[in-house]
Structure formats: structure tokens, C-alpha cells
């Protein structure tokens, strides 16, 4: 069965439409109204090998927070929906990504138990008008609504752009591994028989 999900989310702060194809092979078009975030999501789609389309309009004149968080919610919900029972997936994924002077690690368990452990330097500078703190908000919303356990850590780094880019790439690579199909275990990857 195709591992595809479509999510539409409309609030007083944002309106968005998202299409995710876990086996889709890359970016299908991303337009959030936040250029730096578009770039990060494009990298995410490319390195996860997911087909990803996002069209969003939000109250970005006020702040980017609502748009970033709501996209995290929608992307997490789409991943959970696309994976369904999670039958046949590898379940676990880990990726270390060097981005120049920065090194980032992301480890994921498609467990059905939402949890985010996120280690990042306190007070890191924003990238233009994009606050570094929004990355944590995105990861929290995504991991909660995807119902997965995510540990992401910036092991070291100085440049905020490099650190954020490494986060999105390492998350993508970890998810590519975790969502790949395991031919040796076609059923649910848990001794409980349920995730």
C-alpha cells in the first residue's frame, strides 16, 4: 500500500495543506512564507527521500512561531497517518551529520510514545529573522504528533545556520532509516505486536 498522507489544517493563525509520500523521493514543492524554513524543509525532503508538498499561509507579520509549529504538527500527523500500523518498518534510525564546524546527532524510534530530548546551545543567534528557538518548537510539535521518540543533540558548533541545517539533515537521515522497510520482519517491529 502506498505510504501517503494528506493533511489540511486551518486555524485563526495559519492555513496549510501538506502532502507526504514516505516513498516519494524528494521535494514536491514547499512554500511556507518563511524562506529560511522553506530551505530547511527542502533539505529535510531531499535527505529523507520523502515526497513532501507544503503550502502554508500564516500570521508571519506577527511572528513565525505559529506557522513553524503548525507545520510541525501537520508533518508529524502526516507521518503517523502514512505509516499506519508501522508494519514492516525498521523502526529505529540514527544519523550523525557534520555541517562544517557543527556536528549533530539525531536518533529516532517510531515507538508510538511521543518524546523529544533536545540539546542545543542556550542563546544561539537567529538566522536573519528566523529565531533559533523555533527549531525546538518544530521538533516538539513534530515528534508529539508523529508519536515517536526523538533525541536530537547539537554536539558542538558555532554557526547557527550550520547547526540548524545539520538538525534537519540528521533528522531526515534518521527517519529515512527508521521508515525503510525491513524484508526480514514484515510485521510489527515489536515483541508486543503493537506500536
Structure description:
With 195 residues, this protein is α/β, with parallel strands linked by helices. The protein has a single domain (4-179), classed as Imidazole glycerol phosphate dehydratase, domain 1 (Ribosomal Protein S5, domain 2), CATH 3.30.230.40. 34% of the residues lie in helices and 29% in strands. It has four helices and eight strands, in the order βββαβαβββαβα. It has a four-stranded mixed β-sheet with strand order 1-2-4-3, covered by helices on one side. A four-stranded mixed β-sheet has the order 5-6-8-7, with helices on one face. The two termini are 19 Å apart. The relative contact order is 0.20. The model has no long low-confidence stretch (mean pLDDT 95).
Question: Which helices and strands occur, and which strands form pairs?
Answer:
Elements: E1 4-10, E2 14-21, E3 27-31, H1 35-48, E4 51-58, H2 65-83, E5 92-99, E6 102-109, E7 115-119, H3 133-146, E8 149-156, H4 160-179
Parallel strand pairs: 3-4, 7-8
Antiparallel strand pairs: 1-2, 2-4, 5-6, 6-8
Helix pairs in contact: 1-4, 2-3
Q: Please summarize the sheet with the most strands.
A: 4 strands, mixed
Straight-line N-to-C gap: 19 Å
CATH class wording? Alpha Beta
Structural class: alpha/beta
Number of domains: 1
